[in-house]
Amino acid sequence: MSKALKATVATVAAVASLAGPAAANAAETAQPQLKDEEAAASVAQAQASVQAASEANAAVKAAPTSSKEAQAKADAAQANLEKAQAGLNAAAQAQSQATANQQQAQSNATAAHNGYATAQQRADEAGTKRAEATAQAQQAAKDAAAASQQVTQAQQAQSAAKGQLDTATADRDAKAQTEAKDAAAEKAAQADVDAKTTAKQNAVAEQSNANKALSDAQAADKAADQKAADAKSEGEQAAKDKTAADKDVASKTTAKQNADADAKAKLEAFDKAQKAEADAKTAKDAADQKVKDLESGDDGLAKLAEQLQAAKDAQAKAEAAQSAADKAKADADKAKSDKASDAQAKQADAQAKADAAKAAKAKADSADEKLSQGVAGYYLDKGAVAAYKALTDPTFATNPNRNQAVKDLAKLGYDNPDSPTNIDNVIAALKLIKRANELRATQGLPALKVNDMIMATSALSALRGSMIGNHSGIVGTENLAMGYDPNLNDTDNTDGPFGGWWFAEKEQYDKGVTDFNRTGHYQNLINTYNDVAGAAVVGAGAEGNVFGGYVSQMGFGTSDFYGQSEGSRTMTVDDYIADLTAWRDALKNAGADYQKAQSAADTAAKDSEAAAKALVAATEQAAKAQQAAEQAAKDSAAAAKAVEEAQKRYDEAVAAQGDKAQALKDAKADQTAKTEAYETAKAATATAKTESDTAAKTASDAADALTAAQQAQSKAQQAVDAAAAKAEQAVKDKAAAQQAITAAQDRIAKADKAVADADTALKAAEKTLETAKVTHAASSAAVKDAQAKVDAAKATYDARTADLTAANKALSDAEARGKAAQAVIDSYANVEQELADAKAKAEAADKALAEANAAKKTADENYAKAKKAYDAAKADKTASDKELAAAKKAEAEAKKKADEAKKAQTAKAEAARKAKAAAEAKAKAAKEAKARAAAVATGDVKTAGVSENGLAHTGTESTVILGLTAIMAVAGAGSVLMRRRYAKHAAGWTDTQSLIEG
C-alpha cells in the first residue's frame, strides 16, 4: 500500500467514529448533517477517499443502498403501488358503470326506434282499419238484437220446464219419504224378529243348560251317595285292616323280643364257651410246660418266676383296660339314652306337624269352596246350623218371600260382589250396627249385639226388598234404605243411611213427631226392648235390584228369640267382625298356611329321621362299648387266672424239688387230663358259635318282620284317615249337590217360561215383519214411477236450459264483436300524436346514446392510464423487494465473517502469549513490536513474507483495516467487508486484501 493511501485511510478512520451511526436512504439519500463545517469537510474528504480506494483496488462498484435505504425504498414503492391500485380500482368501477350506461342507452335507443316504426305503421294503416271496424260494429249490433229476442223466448220455455220438473220432484220426494218410513218399519220389524229369534235361541240354550245343570247336579248327588257308600265300605275295610295290622305288630313285637332274648342267651353261652376254651388252653399250655421243665432236668424256677411276674404285669394292664372300657360303656349308655329321648321327642313333633299339615291341606283344599259360599260357609264352619239352612234351604221356612229370597240368593251367588252374603258386604253391614251403637251411646243407650240367625234373615230381607221395592216381612222389625252408600269407612260418607234413619228423623222426633210413618226408623234404633241386631247390604249391580243403587237394611230383635236357633251365637259387633275377618283371612291364607305347615312337617320329619339315625348310631356304639367292656372283663379275669396259675406252677416247682420222678409222673397225668379238657372245650365253643349265629339271624329276621308290620300298620292308619276324609267330603258334596239341584230346578222353570214367552213374541214379530214388507214393496214401486216422471221433466228442462245457454252465448258473442270493433276504432283515435311522441323519444334516445359512448371512451382511456401506472408501481415494488433482500443478506454475511475474524485473531493472540514464556522471548517480542511500529510510522510495511520472529502475517496492516472500517462507517450500513485473492506471480498468491463491496 502506498504512503498516500495509508495516510488517507488513517484520516478516514479518525472521522469514521463520528459518522458511523449515519446511513444513506435509497434514492432519496439524505446525508448526515455535521455540527460544523469541519465535520462536513471530513465527510466529503472521506467520500473522496472511498472513490479513490475503489479506483485503486479496481474492485469498487457503485455503492448500493444500505438495508435501511432499501427498506425505505421498498416502503415508498409499496405506497405508490397502493395509490396505483386505488386509482386502478376507481377507473375500473367508472369503466364498468360507463359500460352499463352505454348498454342501457343502446337498449333504450333500439326500443325507441322500434316504437317509432310501429307508430309509423299504425299511422299508415289507420284509415283502412277504422272503416273495417265501423262495418263490423254495425253488423254486431244487428246480431245482438236478434240474439236478445232468442234469449227471451228461451227463458220462457225454460221457466215452463222448470215448473213441470219441480212438480214431479215434489211428488217423487213425498213418495220417497213414505217409502223411507216403510223401509225403516220393515228394518225395525226385521231387527225385532232377529232380536226375538236370538232371545228364543238364548232361552232354548238356557233351557238346555238348565236341564244339563240339573242332570249334572243329580249326577253329582248320586256320585256323592256313591262316594259316601264307598267311603263307608273303605272305612270298614280299613278298620279291619288296621285291627289286623295292630295284632300283627303285637305278634311280631313279641317274636322279636323272644328272638332278641334267645340271641342274647346264645351269645352269652358262646362267650362262656370261648372263655372255657381259653382257660383250658391256658391249663394245657401250663401242663405241657411243666412236663417239659421236669423232663429237661431243670427245675425252671427262674423262668417260672419270670412268667409269674409277666402274668402280674398283664393283670395290671387288663384291669386298667377294663376300667377304661367300663367308663366308655357308661358314656355310650348315656349317649344312647339321650339320643333315644331326642328321637322320641322329634318323632312326636314330626307326627304333630304332619297332622297339622294334613289338617292345613284339608283346609286349603276346601278354602275356595267355603269362600264361594260367602257368609253361609262361615255359619257352617261355626256350627250355626239354623243360619246356614236359612240361607241355603228354600224349604226351611213357610214365608214365601223368604223362600223366594233363598232361590234368588242361590241364583245371584253367595260370593257375588253385589250379594248380601259376600263377606266384604257383611263386614260393611256390621259397621252399620257399629255406627248405630255409637249413635245410641249419645242417648245413653246400651250397645246392640249381633246374632248369627238375625244376620242371616237380614241378608234375605235386604235382597228380597231390593227386588220388590218394599219391606218383605222376613224380619219383623227392620229399617230399609235405598241409594245411600253404606261404606262408612269412607271419610266423605260417615252417615250413610243414618242421614235419614237417625239425623233427619231425630230432628222431627225431638219436635214431638211420633208418627211411626215419619220417625219409625229412628224409633227402631232407640228401642230399648231389642238387644240384638242384624244388617245387610245389597250392591247396586245385583240382578233384579229395582232401585239401581245400594240397599241397606237393619233388623232388630231379642237374644231370647234369636238365641233359640240351632247353633246361633250372640256376641259384640267388634268380636263378630274380628271373628268373621279372621275366618276369611284364614281361608284366603290357607294355601300359604298349608305350605308353611307342610314345610314345617318336612323339616320335622327330616329332624326325626336324623334323630333316629343318631339313635341307631348311638345304639351301635353302646353295643360296641358293651362288647368291649365285656371283653375287657374277660381279659381281666383271664389275666387274674393266669397269675393264679403261674403262682401255682411256681409253688409246685418249689415243692417238687424233693421228688422229681413223682412230680414228672403227676405232671404227665395232669397234661393228659388238661389236653382232653381243651379238646372238649374247643368242640363246645364251635357248637355255641353255630347256635349264636342262628339265633342272631332269627333276631334280625324278626326285626325286619316287625318293621314290615309297622309299615303295614301305618298304611292301614292312612287308609282309615283317607276313608274318614272321603266320608266327610261326601257329606259336603251331597249338600252342594242338593243345593245345585234346587237351583237347577228353579232355573229350568224360568227357562221353560222364557222359551214359551220368546216363541210367542217371535211369532208376533214375524207377522209384523210380513205386513211391513208388503207395505214397503208398494211404496217402493210408487217411488220408481215418480222418479221416471222426474227424469222426463229433467230431460225437458235440460234441453230448454241448453237452448237458453246457446241464445245467451250468441248474444254475448255479438256484444263481444261490437266491443272489439269499437276498441279498434278507439285505438286509432290518437295515432298522429302517438307518432310524434315516438319520434321525440327516438331522438332523445339517440342523444343519450352518443353521450354514453363518449363517457365510455373517456372511462376506457382513464383505465388504461391507471393500469399503466399500476404496472410501473408494481415493477418498482418487485425491484425494491429484491434489493432489500440482497442488502439484508450481505449485511448478515459480513457480520458473520467479522465475528469469525475476531475469534481467530483472539485465538492467535492467546497462543502467542502462551508461547512467550521466557523473559527473553518477551523482550524480543517487544523489540520486534517497536521495530514494526517504526516501520508503520515511515510507511515501510511489507505485504508478504515472514517477520523477524519467524511468524507469518497477513500482508495487510491494522492501519489499513481500521481505515477501511472508517470508510465503511461513512459509506453506510450497506457496506460489506469482502476478502478476495489476486494472482501476483506464478509461484504463489498474495495475502488477502481488504476491499469495500457494495
What's this model, at a glance?
This protein is mainly alpha-helical and 998 residues long.
Describe what this molecule looks like in 3D.
The protein has 998 residues and is mostly helical. Among the domains are: 3-66 and 880-997, no CATH class; 415-568, 3-Layer(aba) Sandwich (Pathogenesis-related Protein p14a), CATH 3.40.33. The chain contains 18 helices and nine strands. The chain has helices at 3-19, 37-57, 67-296, 301-372, 375-382, 385-392, 400-412, 423-441, 452-468, 498-510, 516-526, 559-562, 573-588, 590-655, 660-827, 831-915, 919-938, 958-971, and strands at residues 449-451, 477-482, 532-538, 551-557, 570-571, 976-980, 983-985, 988-989, 993-997. It has a five-stranded mixed β-sheet with strand order 2-4-3-1-5, with helices on both faces. A hairpin with a 2-residue loop joins strand 7 and strand 8 (988-989). Helix 1 (3-19) crosses helix 2, helix 1 (3-19) packs across helix 18 (958-971) and helix 3 crosses helix 16 (831-915). The model is unreliable at 2-36, 56-63 and 941-998 (pLDDT under 50).
